[in-house]
Each structure stands twice: as structure tokens, then as C-alpha cells.
Amino acid sequence: MVKIPNRSIDAFVKAPDSGIVAVLLFGEDNGLVRERAGRLATAVVDDPTDPFRVAELLPSILKDEPTRLFDEMGALSLTGGRRLVRLGSAGNAHSGTIQAVLDDDMVAKNGSLLVVEAGPLAPRDSLRKLFESHARGAALPCYPDDGRSLEGLIHDTLTAHGLAIEPSAMAYLCDNLGTDRLATRSELEKLVLYKGKNVGSVTLAEAEANVGDGAPLARDDVALATASGDQAELDRALTKCRVAGESPIAILRAVIRHLQRLHLLSLKAANGGDLGQLIKSHRPPIFFKHQQLIQHQLQYWRAPRLAQALAILTQAELDCKTTGMPADAVCGRALIRIANAARPPARR
Question: If one looks up domain 147-210 in CATH, what number appears?
Fold first, then answer.
């Protein structure tokens, strides 16, 4: 099997192939990893808490009992039906143990399904490579909702409760949700509970009153200040992010997403599109309070410079992960470089 493409993941999770022995769920969105693991569990067993058909393991258990995973996968269900084994917090250290399970013909005939949950994995990581190359394995990437996928999730959730949503409220939610699937669903359910079912459209005021704890807004403020070259506002927004417990990588990615949006709009405008209309019709929608500022930013950010800025941010994220340098310092230095480059000549 190979990595399951995004368009096929939902169908696979609802009805996993009977020839698959183990499924790897990995990525930056821990909430989405947990959600899909839960959906796989309900596709295999009627009751995911049934101790006779479900076994839940952690790395600490495998450390004390190296053969435990193999034993659980080979066990027969006392009440009939397919067994489910879940392994959480997995990493490259478990690749050999899992490969032994995948390679065993008797385990494959037994019909048990192993669901492995992991965090972000690079293409070179042994655990990911194992699942993407093994005929009995499947790898499902779980990345944060963004763009149309986030807009679709919001729309589907509200529609299921008989609610519509105003464009400005949709733009606000798209700006403040999406980093964690379960957190996004929780925030939307809170909004639905506040609004009530079948009572019209969610307004911007209602969305602002119910969604967000300040951290997403602070990340947006960092991105906007960086692209505007506003050093004072950048300092304030970074302070708010740190108080909220935001990681430097999350901050960098927020700025990357903003510059990617500017880059796309810049390319479309260069091809003859009306910039104001492009901003208004952009998907996911841009929060109306930010539209004028973004149009102003695009007056001095051109596609080649945006590409250079994105390269700086990408390298900063890599440095945060690999060099051992203080991540806050790496993040701050990269943002200051871009903010300096963004400042209009009259302000230098």
C-alpha cells in the first residue's frame, strides 16, 4: 500500500480494506489523528471500549514487554468479530516491531487491525517509509485543516444543525480555527449550542463572542504586522503569542500561510485580475477587517520578494527543528528580517 491520498481518506476510514493489517495515522494535527483513529475503531468493532476485542498499547508497555504487540495481534476474539489493537505515541523506534507484525502471514489471516498513532513524520522516517511501502500497511497523513477543507468543515457542521453563516463570520472562523480538528469541532459545537438549532445565520458578532481563546488572533496579528513592516505591533503580537503558550513553529506557519496567500493574490493580479475583487472573492474568505490592509501590503510585496520571504521562513522552521538553537530566537530573527524588508522606503 502507499500513502492514502486526501481525497480517498474518508472512504478508507469508513471501510478499511480487509487486506490491510496496520494503519498509520501521522501528522501535525493531533486532533485529526485521534478523530480518524476513533472512526477506524468504530468501523472495525461495534464498541471501541470492548476489552475482549480491543487492546490499547503505549510505548512504555512495549518497552517492558517487547512481544506484547505481536501477541495482541495474534490473539483471537473471544466474542467473535475482528480485533482492534491501538498503539499510541509511536515513533521510529517501533518500526522493527511493527514490520514483524506486517510480515507475519498468520497475523494477516487472523484479521486483526493495528491502528498506529504518531506525530509529524518526515518522508525519510523509518516508520512512515514502512507503512507507505508495505503491501499490508496504509499511511494516512493528518494535516491541519486550511483553505477549502476548513470552510467545508465549518459549513457541514453548521448545516447539520440547520444553521447558515454570514460571509464575515465564515471569514472570521477560517482565520481562527483549523490547527487541531478536535479543537475546531469543539469550538463549532460551542457556537451551535449558543446559537441554537434552525434559527437562521451565524453572525460575525456571535462568532467573535464564542470562538477563539486569543491565540489564533495573536498569530494573525504577528502575520499582519510582519507583512506590514510594523515592528512595534510585531513585538506586541509576539508577546501575546508567548503568553498564550504558542510555539515558535506555530507562529512561523501562521506567517507562512499569510505570505502564501499574498503570493497567490499577487500572481493572480499580475495576470490581469482586479486586486480588490480578488481579495473579496478569495477562498477561504479573508476577514473583512483585514482586506484593506492586505490590499495595501500587496502594493509593495511582489511575487519574487514573497518567494524569498517564504524561503526565509521555511528555513527558520527547519532550524527550529534541527539545529538546537533557541526556537524563539530563530523565529524572532526571521520575522524581523521580513518585517524590515516589508517596510516602505519612507519609513526606513
Answer: 1.10.8.60
CATH number of 6-141: 3.40.50.300
CA distance 347 to 267: 26
* Positions of CATH 1.10.8.60 in the chain: 147-210
302-342 pLDDT, tens per residue?
Answer: 999 999 999 999 999 999 988 889 999 999 999 999 999 98
Q: For residue 298, what is the DSSP state? A: T
Supply 7's cell numbers.
481525497
Burial class (CB in 10 A: 0-12, 13-18, 19+), 306: buried
The closest alpha carbon to 75, from 103, 53, 45, 46, belongs to: 53
The tens digit of pLDDT for each residue in 40-73 reads 999 999 999 999 999 999 999 999 999 999 999 9
Domain with CATH 1.20.272.10 in the chain: 215-336
Length of the chain: 348
Q: In what order do the strands lie in the sheet with 113-118?
A: 54-57, 84-90, 113-118, 22-26, 137-141
Instruction: Tell me the pTM.
Output: 0.70
Phi, psi dihedrals of residue 117, rounded to the nearest 5°: -110, 130
